[in-house]
Amino acid sequence: MKQHLLSIVLMSFALTVFGQEVERELMINFSKAEQHKKEQQFEKRHQLERGGETSLSLPFFDDFATYSLPTNDPEIPASMQRWADTSAYVNCTFPINPPTIGVATLDGLDRTGYPYDFITDSYGPADTLTSLPINLEGLSADDNVYLTFFYQGGGRGNSPDAPDSLVVEFFAPIGGENPWFHQWSIPGAEHEEFQQVFIPIDQDIFLQDGFQFRFRNYSTLTGNLDHWHLDYVLVNNNIDPENFDFFEVAFVECPNTMLQDLTSMPWTHFQTNPTQFMRTTTSTLQRNLSTTQADNVTSGYRIEYEGDIEDYQNDFSIVVVGPESFFTTDYAVNSAPNNFVFDDTVSDTTATFNVSFYADNIGILSDEKVGVPDNDSLVFQQVFQNYYSYDDGSAESAWGLNVAGGKAAVKYNVVTPDTLLGVFIHWTPFQEDNSNESFNLRVWNDDGGVPGDELVDNFAFLTPYYYNDGYNVFTFYEFEETIEVEGPIYVGFNQNGSEELYVGLDKNTNTNPTRLFFQLGLGAEWTQSSIEGSVMIRPVFKAGMTNVWNNIEEQAEVEFNVYPVPFQDQLNIAPEFGVGSYNAQVLDMNGRIVEQSNNLFGSSTIDLSHLAPGVYLLQVMDQNSQAYGRKRIIKR
Question: Does the domain formed by 22-240 have CATH 3.40.50.1100?
Answer without folding.
Answer: no
